[in-house]
Design a protein that fits this description.
12 helices; alpha+beta; about 250 residues; five-stranded antiparallel sheet
Length: about 250
């Protein structure tokens, strides 16, 4: 049964996630909090993208897990993980999906004799796990995994419910983090001239081309030429996309 203390903890983690998404150590900070909520002995987060049928693994962050093993998982062992395979074979009808060892494994003896268990889990003193994925309309964004040793109770329905209640907060935080990183990438690749920066600022303010031309004392055609270059540099196609990409970057 979920108790009031756990509900309060979920709200606290959700608030922290939405406030601290820009923190350089955001992933590990959140992992620590979820680790306490789910009573785990270790946790890992992978930035992932794509769809379940074709997932791309990005950076990973872990707490109380050997980083070398986290990399082994990304590079090789995720293909042998029965939990991940089970999860990705199920239809994804929502932005959250979870699975744990006892729900995915039918033959425990076969599982414990597998290469995945003997060569990957057992050396880390891992016996059972729970994993869950988060995504949005654009695809998957993150994979969380938490582990327990042999002498601890396996994850149950309450564990899944706790993760499900936390999921909306985590999705919002990951979306904000993705947007921040996208803007940072635009900023690092940006080499606008002073004139182009002035035009971009007026675009953000909502001015039309002829209004910008009047403000700067240049021809409308000149504004249009500069805009073409700005679109190319920022990988945007119209004024709305440009305003969104540069709103938090250019000093107003």
């Amino acid at each position: 049964m979920i108790n009031s203390t756990q509900i309060e903890k979920i709200a606290s983690i959700g608030s922290l996630a939405c406030e601290a998404y820009a923190d350089d150590d955001f992933e590990r900070l959140i992992l620590r909090q979820i680790q306490a909520l789910l009573d785990t002995d270790g946790g890992v987060f992978y930035n992932i993208s794509g769809l379940p049928a074709a997932v791309t693994f990005g950076d990973n962050y872990c707490v109380d897990i050997d980083p070398e093993y986290a990399n082994y998982y990304k590079e090789y062992y995720h293909e042998q993980d029965p939990l991940l395979n089970y999860l990705f074979k199920r239809p994804h009808k929502s932005f959250f999906s979870s699975i744990s060892t006892l729900h995915a494994i039918e033959d425990l003896d076969e599982y414990q004799n597998s290469e995945y268990y003997k060569d990957f889990l057992r050396p880390q003193n891992i016996h059972t796990s729970i994993i869950f994925t988060l995504g949005n309309n654009n695809g998957l964004m993150g994979l969380f995994g938490f582990q327990r040793p042999f002498n601890k109770t396996p994850y149950n329905r309450d564990s899944h419910l706790l993760a499900q209640l936390l999921a909306p907060y985590l999705i919002l935080a990951l979306e904000s983090r993705q947007m921040q990183r996208a803007k940072s990438q635009v900023q690092s690749n940006l080499s606008l001239t002073k004139r182009q920066m002035d035009i971009a600022k007026y675009i953000i303010m909502g001015l039309r081309n002829h209004e910008i031309a009047a403000q700067l004392g240049i021809k409308v055609k000149t504004v249009e030429c500069h805009l073409t270059s700005i679109y190319q540099q920022t990988h945007t196609r119209n004024r709305v996309m440009l305003a969104r990409a540069l709103a938090d970057i250019l000093p107003m």
